[in-house]
Amino acid sequence: MRTTMTGPARARAAAAVVGAILVAGCGGGSAVPPGAALPATPSAPAPAATAFGKEAVRADLAAATAAAGLPGETTPLSPTPPASPDPADPADPPATDRERARDEVVARMATCSVGWSSPNGPGSAQDRAEARKRFRAALAGLVERGWKESRPVEEVPVGKGTMVMAQYKKQEWSLHARHVESGLLDMATMTATEDACANRFTDAELDLLED
Question: Is this model's pTM higher than 0.70 or not?
Answer without folding.
Answer: no
